[in-house]
Amino acid sequence: MNSALRLPALLCIALPLLSACDAVAGKKDYAYFRKNIEEAKSVSDQCQLNGTSGMNEAQIRVCGAAREAWGNRNFNY
User: Cα–chain-centroid distance for residue 35?
Assistant: First the structure.
């Protein structure tokens, strides 16, 4: 693999929230995180740790949805 492509490919695989390469990042809404509560916790923790400064609007919405789903994890509806 070309060395110029190796690093971006690695970033797209390892850091989808930060690199914005995740193809389904726009589809990660509240309903998605309610079904995948462990991922909601992970994303929520990561957003809290790193903050949302420098993120684009779509990434901030993903963080918000993850936080909301994690916060409502004990509600059954």
Answer: 14
